[in-house]
Amino acid sequence: MQSLYDFLRRHPTWVDGFWAVFLLGLSVVFVGSTPSDTPGTKAETLILPIVLLLCLVVALRRRMPEKMLLLGIALGVGQLVLDVATMPADFALLVITYTVAATGARWASRLALVVGLGAAPLAQLRWQEADAGVFGTVALMVFMTVPFALAWVLGDSIRTRRAYFAQLEERAARLEKEREAQAKVAVAAERARIARELHDVVAHNVSVMVVQADGAAYVLDAAPDQAKKALETISSTGRQALAEMRRLLGVLRTGEHQEGGEYVPQPDVEQIEDLVEQCRGSGLPVDFKIEGTPRPLPSGVELTAYRIVQEALTNTRKHGGPNAGASVRLVYFDDGLGLLVEDDGKGAPHELYEEGGADGAGHGLIGMRERVGMVGGTLDAGPRPGGGFRISALLPLKPAH
Known about the structure:
By secondary structure, the protein is of the alpha+beta class. 66% of the residues lie in helices and 10% in strands. Among the domains are: 2-127, no CATH class; 268-401, Heat Shock Protein 90 (2-Layer Sandwich). The protein has helices at 2-10, 12-33, 44-59, 65-82, 91-103, 106-126, 134-219, 224-254, 272-281, 299-319, 350-354, 363-374; strands at residues 258-259, 262-263, 286-291, 326-332, 336-343, 378-383, 389-396. A hairpin with a 2-residue loop joins β1 (258-259) and β2. α3 runs antiparallel to α4 and α10 (299-319) runs antiparallel to α12 (363-374). 29% of the residues are buried.
C-alpha cells in the first residue's frame, strides 16, 4: 500500500487523468440519459467537445493551472452563449478553482474567486427553473455559489499552510547553516587557543634550553662545573616542557580537567616569580617587583598575566642581545592588574610588532593581544626611549562588554 501511495505521489498527472476519465464517463452517461427537449440541450453537437475539454482541464490542472483556468472560463462562457446547460463535467470548474487557489499565481487565484462567485448566479439566470419563484432562484444561486467559495477557501488555506511549512524549512536550514558557522568559529577559536598554549610552552622552554646549551658548549672545556650546571638546567627545563605538553595533549584527548573555558591546572601570578628565577638561572638578569596588595584574581586574568610575562622574557632572550637585562613590574589596582615588562637590549625587529611578522614570526605578540582582548584588557608593545623594548598591559577584573 505504501509503495502504491508513493507511486501516486510521484505521478500526480496519472491520478488527475484517472479522475478526468471518470468524469468523462459520468458526463457521457448523464448526457445520454437527458431528454432531448430539456432546456439547454439545443446545441447537442457541441456538448461532447465541451465535455472533453472540461475533462482535459482536470487532467492537466496541476501541470498548467493558469492555462487550464482560462480554458475553463472560456468553456463556461461558451456554455452560456451556446445554451449548453450545466452537467457533471462542469465539476472541473470547482476543481480548477481549488487548484489555482492552492498552487497557481496570485492573479489566477483572484480571478478564479471572482469567476466562481459569479458562475452560479449567471447559470441560474440563464437556465431558470420554470416553477421557481424569486426566492427560490436566489436560494439556488446562493446554494450553487457556496461550493465555489469553499473550494477557493480550501485551496487558499492549503497554499498558506504550504508557505508556512516552507518558511519553517527555510528557517531550519538557515539555523543549521548558522550552527555550522558557529561550530567553525568555535573550532577556529579553539585552534587559536591551542596554538597560543603550544607557542607559550615551546617558545619559552626551548629558548631557555638553547641559551643554556650555547653556554655549556662555550664553557665546556674551561669550566666543566658551569657546563654541568647548564646541562642540569636544560634537563629540568626539558622535563618541565614535556610535562606541560603532556598536560595539554591529555586535555585535548579526553576533554577532562576543563573549567571556565581554560585548561587547568594553569600557571598563575604567583608562579611569575618562579619564571623570573628560571630566567635568571639561564643568564638573563631580571629585576622583579610587585606593587600594591596581592590578592586572588580570576583564573583567566592570572593565566594571561603569566603568559604575557613569559612571552616578553622569551622575546628579550631572543632579540635583546647578549648583555640585555629586563625588569618586570606587577601593579595591583582596585579594579585590575597592571603589567610592565621592559628590557635594555636592542629590541625586536620593527616588523614583528607592527605587521605580525612573516613565515611564523611575531606570533608571540599576536598571542598576547588575543589573550588580553579575551579578558577585556589593553596592551601596548613597542620600542622604548633610549633603546630596548617595552610591553605594558592592563587587565581588568571584569571583561569589557
